[in-house]
Q: What sequence folds into this?
């Protein structure tokens, strides 16, 4: 990637991260970390492991065409940095995905990089819908359901089925044009989306053809990629499990899966907030209290998760800088 763009991504991410850190109550953060103890280190280590699943899914997609791809651990670093930018950017995908394309393009070409990044983003979101779908079944099987919850679960199930259908069609026919057509109807974004769609329609058509081709060439790889992302969602419940062990040793892992499912669903409805501020905390508070955990426990979980996100966002941004420094050293040699 051009050095100028790397500096821009790094500077923007650091600026947003600093703003977010200054919004924290440092006394509350310190008390939370002391209370969590070594379990906080377990949470940080867990995400180093979970990012391997994300990277593996993207690695499979890049190599779906049978052409030489990229080194796995280099892609692991780009994955972490991409998610860091997504965390820090309002709208999520507006930050990390352009960075991933610009890093990958010199290695495999711009169009192939764009199609693989879009296809991975589709797979990542697609796995969320499957996770929510499976969690609904799990909730019905393990928790009491009253009339209100029945209506809520039915509406959520319909939403998940609609999302799954949308992405299945997108895999077969491409999603670039469909996504842009959707964006041009949204407030604030539509003024930018329509000119972009008119100017880049040919490139978007090419990307859509490549997405459909990549999917049809090796459908088995995409099944594995979706499963890797789904397993990552399920294993991420260990984060809540580790944190709640500090205050509620009787919590079950199934309850933690349901907490993560409800929280991510609620937080993604507020996708326009950087680091999903407010939505994530509100989701943890509502989901934990619904499943028998105290309100203070929900706040504690939200606090530790927020600190973990800030730490990994900082790591991801530093990896952007590290990549730039390492390249400069190689060039000097």
A:
């Amino acid at each position: 990637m051009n050095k100028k763009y790397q500096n821009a991504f790094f500077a923007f991410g650091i600026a947003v991260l600093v703003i977010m850190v200054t919004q924290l109550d440092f006394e509350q953060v310190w008390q939370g970390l002391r209370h969590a103890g070594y379990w906080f280190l377990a949470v940080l280590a867990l995400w180093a492991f979970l990012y391997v699943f994300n990277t593996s899914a993207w690695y499979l997609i890049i190599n779906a065409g049978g052409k030489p791809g990229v080194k796995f651990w280099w892609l692991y670093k780009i994955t972490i940095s991409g998610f860091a930018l997504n965390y820090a950017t309002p709208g999520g995908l507006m930050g990390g995905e352009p960075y991933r394309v610009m890093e990958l393009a010199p290695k495999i070409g711009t169009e192939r990089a764009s199609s693989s990044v879009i296809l991975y983003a589709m797979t990542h979101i697609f796995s969320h819908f499957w996770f929510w779908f499976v969690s609904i079944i799990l909730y019905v099987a393990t928790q009491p359901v009253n009339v209100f919850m029945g209506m809520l679960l039915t509406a959520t199930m319909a939403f998940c089925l609609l999302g799954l259908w949308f992405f299945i069609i997108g895999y077969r026919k491409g999603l670039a044009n469909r996504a842009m057509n959707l964006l041009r109807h949204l407030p604030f974004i539509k003024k930018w989306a329509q000119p972009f769609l008119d100017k880049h329609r040919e490139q978007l058509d090419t990307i859509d053809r490549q997405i459909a081709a990549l999917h049809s060439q090796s459908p088995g790889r995409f099944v594995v990629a979706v499963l890797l992302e789904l397993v990552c969602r399920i294993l991420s419940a260990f984060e809540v499990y580790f944190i709640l062990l500090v205050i509620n040793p009787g919590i079950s892992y199934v309850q933690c899966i349901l907490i993560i499912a409800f929280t991510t669903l609620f937080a993604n409805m507020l996708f326009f907030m950087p680091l999903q501020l407010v939505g994530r905390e509100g989701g943890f508070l509502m989901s934990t209290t619904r499943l028998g955990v105290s309100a203070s426990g929900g706040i504690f979980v939200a606090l530790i998760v927020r600190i973990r996100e800030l730490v990994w966002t900082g790591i991801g941004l530093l990896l952007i800088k590290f990549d730039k420094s390492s390249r400069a050293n190689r060039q000097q040699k």
Observations:
- Confidence is low (pLDDT under 50) at residues 272-276, 328-333.
